[in-house]
Amino acid sequence: EEFEEPEIKPFVTSDDLYDWMSDKSCRDQFVIRYDRETEIFWSETKNAPVLSYGGDREKEGGKVWVHLGVEWSPQGTYLCTFHKRGVALWGGSDFRKLQRLRHGNVHAAKFSPDERYLATWNGEAVDGKVESVDTNGALLVWDVATGRALRDFPQVQASAVPDFSWSCDGNFLARLSRRGGQDLVQVYETPSMGLLGKASIHAQGVQELQWSPTDPYMVWWSPEHANIPACVTLTEFPSKTVVRTKNLFHVKTCRLYWQASGDFLCVE
Predict the structure, then answer these.
(1) Which of 39, 90, 110, 207 has its CA 20 to 30 A from that of 254?
(2) What does the alpha-carbon distance between residue 166 and residue 92 come to, in Å, rounded to a whole number?
(3) pLDDT tens track of the chain, all 268 residues?
(4) What is the signed CA dihedral for 169, 176, 209, 146, rounded to 10 degrees?
(5) Is-contact 103 140, C-beta < 8 A?
C-alpha cells in the first residue's frame, strides 16, 4: 500500500472572542429584536447607542440572520441564535459565525457556566403528550469549541420546560428521567457524558432540581405521595452524599432559590 502524505491545511487565525472587553470606553453590548431585525449595540452613557452588528453579511446573501430568538452566553462570549433547524453561535469583533449546531425545533439552550458546553432542548408537553422533532434526541449536549455533539437524550416524561441543569463549574449535567415507573435524577460527567457512578438517584415524584451557583451541591423537591410528605433534598457531588433533607406538610408546590453566593437556600 502506497503512503499518501496528508495535505497540510493553511493556518487560519481565529477571532478574538474577548475583543469587546478591550473597548477603550469600557462599554457593554446589548441586543434588541424588532420586526425581522436583530441588532447588537454598544451602550453609551451620554450619546445614542452605537450599532455594532445588524446581520449585514447575511442580508447581502439574501438570508435572514435570526429566525426565532437570541440568547447571550453567561460570560457574554457568544451570541446564540435560534433557527428552525438548530442554533448558531456567533462571536468576535464582527460577530462571525463560529458554530452551527443542527437540532430541529429547539425551544431552549443552556450554556454551562464556564461556556465549555451547550445543551439544546426541543421536547415540549402539549395536552399531556410530548411533541418533538426527534424524540430520540430531545436533549443534545455539545462541545462549544468543536461543535461536536457529545450525547443525546430522549424526552422520557412530559415537560413544558427544560428539565436539566448545569453545575456551577460545568463538570456535571443533571436531568430528570423515568424508568420502570421510577422517577430518577441522573447526573452526567463532562466531557465523557457518562452517568456518574453508573447509577441514577431514585427520587419519587421529583419535580425540580437546581445546582448551587458556587459549589457542587444540588437540591430538588418531591411532592406529597400517599402518606409520605413533600421533601426537599440537598446532595453533594460527586460523592452523592445527602447533606440535608426537610419534610414539608400540606404542600402542593415549591420554588427553590439559591442566594447568589450559594450561602443560603430559600424554599418557597
Answers:
(1) 110
(2) 25
(3) 788 888 888 877 777 888 888 888 889 999 999 988 899 999 988 889 999 999 999 888 888 888 889 999 999 999 999 998 899 999 998 899 999 999 888 888 999 999 999 999 887 543 444 444 334 578 899 999 999 999 988 876 656 567 789 999 999 999 988 887 888 899 999 999 999 999 999 888 888 889 999 999 999 988 888 788 889 999 999 999 999 999 988 888 888 999 999 999 999 8
(4) 20
(5) yes
